[in-house]
Q: What sequence folds into this?
């Protein structure tokens, strides 16, 4: 292996996009196979359980959540979200654009987060005011606290930001009276492998602040505070069942 050649190529790539690494937060997942094949060619990506931050040449800060892939076109002042979730903070007048599925948001002196999954994208304004252009649709101005859900067909719905939704940037999941099923679906985003649970468990609700880097401790908390048994075939195949019941087969 030509180590020197690989190092030089890596440096050329970093210079090409004008990036300087600001923060790299290791996660629990190293199984990159969980990302779709198309994401492997992305300029920046994270695996399941990993979070990463970079500072762009203009001083803007880009953060990538778990299982996220983005392409950079800084010549056009554009970040393209392929999949996953990002947060972007721009503290200067020259804006950056974020393309995500059927829409584009223009961010100048503002902070936003964008999450795309299941053919749905959600844009949240964390600070300031941004301009959104929905493809084949109208332009919108969104302000702090606004959240826009955009569907694959270009339709959208306005809502209000959950103030704890951006807490992933600090490595925590903060919830209040969230149904257990919804909570586990969120936890599974940060955990490689298969996480399943009995439908009967969905009736419980969860509150608290949980570390995203240690999903094992989250499952241990549930076992200690709910009538739940955690049954693991391996680190990557876990099922939650009502206490006293065997794990479902299959």
A:
């Amino acid at each position: 292996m030509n180590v020197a050649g690989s190092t030089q190529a890596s440096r050329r790539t970093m210079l090409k996009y004008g990036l300087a690494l600001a923060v790299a937060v290791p996660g629990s997942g190293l199984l990159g196979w969980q990302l779709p094949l198309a994401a492997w060619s992305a300029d920046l990506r994270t695996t399941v359980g990993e979070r990463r931050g970079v500072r762009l040449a203009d001083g803007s800060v880009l953060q990538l959540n778990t299982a996220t892939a983005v392409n950079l076109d800084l010549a056009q002042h554009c970040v393209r979200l392929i999949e996953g979730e990002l947060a972007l903070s721009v503290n200067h007048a020259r804006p950056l654009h974020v393309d995500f599925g059927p829409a584009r948001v223009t961010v100048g002196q503002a902070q936003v987060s964008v999450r795309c999954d299941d053919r749905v994208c959600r844009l949240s304004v964390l600070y300031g005011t941004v301009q959104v252009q929905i493809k084949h649709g109208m332009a919108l101005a969104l302000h702090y606290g606004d959240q826009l859900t955009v569907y694959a067909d270009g339709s959208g719905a306005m809502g209000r930001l959950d103030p704890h939704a951006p807490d992933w940037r600090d490595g925590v999941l903060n919830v209040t009276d969230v149904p257990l099923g919804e909570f586990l679906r969120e936890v599974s985003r940060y955990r490689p492998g298969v996480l399943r649970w009995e439908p009967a468990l969905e009736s419980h609700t969860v509150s608290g602040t949980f570390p995203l880097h240690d999903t094992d401790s989250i499952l241990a908390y549930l076992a200690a505070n709910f009538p739940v048994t955690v049954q693991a075939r391996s680190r990557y195949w876990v099922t939650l069942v009502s206490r006293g019941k065997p794990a479902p087969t299959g």
The mean pLDDT is 85. The helical segments are 3-17, 180-188, 215-225.
